[in-house]
């Protein structure tokens, strides 16, 4: 059949399968999510009309400054991400193309993923409360902490929740604010013993933090490289591995003395 076609016709016929394959590749769903800078919330204040941290059983300080937890916003677990989407966002500094499994648990339905994120947030809040009260040598039997952050899931606010509880109850330990009146942002998981863990999406969270006025960003030390990759101008990175280290760094910044680590 091809021998009866002219050369241009033969080339066109041969090209059809290639075009079809390319079209399929462009529009076929891929196992990726596209993420960008999300919302931030001051854990010392209110979020959507509700106080983020409420404490009973102990005196609460009036604080100045802000402690902002940060988020990323990603395409939903059931969203079709195509090659065109990946190519269109790959080189944008305010977007990140991430493996879907790095954002959402593998193989779960949307409802299961939502349940998982809610459970992770609850576990993070419990660990944050335990870590803060342990740091302050306070008993959970006497001091009750309630944490509320509507429509935000996952464990990455743990460090900021803990610092917020400490600032409300004890400040810098000598009458001043832990923030020093600054807008401090950050991210990181925390366990009950005060160890800080990595979270992912840090280069997008630094952009969200600077957008919302932060000048200092607490970052898990293991993610310093990612945080520096697209660091906004005017944002100082402070690496942390433990709650004690985070508090010491903030106090040193506030008082203007002592050593403050950097990435």
Automatic annotation (TrEMBL):
Domain Lon proteolytic: 130-236
Signal peptide: none
InterPro entries: Lon_proteolytic (IPR008269), Ribosomal_Su5_D2-typ_SF (IPR020568), Ribsml_uS5_D2-typ_fold_subgr (IPR014721)
A GO MF term: ATP-dependent peptidase activity
One Pfam family in the UniProt entry: Lon_C
GO biological process entries: proteolysis
Record's protein name: Lon proteolytic domain-containing protein
Species of origin: Streptomyces bungoensis
């Amino acid at each position: 059949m091809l021998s009866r076609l002219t050369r241009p016709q033969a080339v066109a016929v041969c090209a059809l399968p290639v075009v079809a394959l390319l079209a399929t590749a462009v529009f076929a769903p891929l196992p990726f999510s596209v993420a960008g800078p999300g919302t931030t919330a001051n854990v010392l204040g209110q979020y959507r009309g509700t106080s983020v941290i409420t404490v009973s059983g102990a005196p609460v300080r009036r604080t100045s400054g802000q402690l902002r937890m940060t988020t990323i916003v990603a395409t939903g677990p059931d969203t079709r991400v195509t090659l065109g989407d990946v190519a269109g966002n790959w080189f944008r500094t305010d977007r990140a193309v991430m493996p879907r499994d790095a954002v959402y648990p593998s193989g779960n339905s949307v409802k299961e993923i939502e349940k998982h994120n809610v459970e992770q947030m609850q576990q993070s809040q419990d660990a944050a409360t335990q870590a803060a009260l342990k740091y302050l040598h306070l008993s959970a039997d006497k001091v009750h902490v309630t944490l509320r952050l509507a429509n935000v899931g996952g464990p990455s606010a743990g460090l900021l929740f803990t610092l917020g509880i400490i600032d409300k109850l004890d400040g810098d330990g000598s009458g001043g604010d832990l923030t020093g009146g600054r807008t401090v942002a950050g991210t990181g998981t925390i366990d009950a013993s005060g160890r800080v863990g990595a979270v992912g999406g840090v280069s997008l969270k630094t952009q969200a933090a600077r957008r919302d006025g932060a000048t200092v960003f607490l970052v898990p030390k293991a993610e310093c490289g990612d945080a520096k990759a697209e660091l906004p101008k005017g944002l100082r990175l402070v690496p942390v591995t433990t709650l004690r280290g985070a508090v010491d760094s903030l106090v040193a910044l506030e008082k203007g003395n002592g050593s403050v680590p950097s990435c």
